[in-house]
Amino acid sequence: MSGDEVNGADAQYAIGISFGSSYSSIAHISQEGKVEVIANEEGDRQIPSILSYVDGEEYHGTQAKAQLVRNPKNTVAFFKDYIGKSYSGIDPTPCKGSAHPTEADGKVVFPIQDSASGDDASNVSVSEITTRHIRRLKNSASDFIGKKITAAVVTVPTDTTNEQRAALSKAAKDADIEILQFINEPVAAVLAYDSRAPESVQDRVIVVADFGGTRSDAAIVACTGGGLYTILATTHDYELGGAQLDQVLEDVRSFSEN
Question: What beta strand segments (E) does 42-146 contain?
Answer without folding.
Answer: 47-48, 51-54, 57-60, 75-76, 102-104, 107-112, 122-125
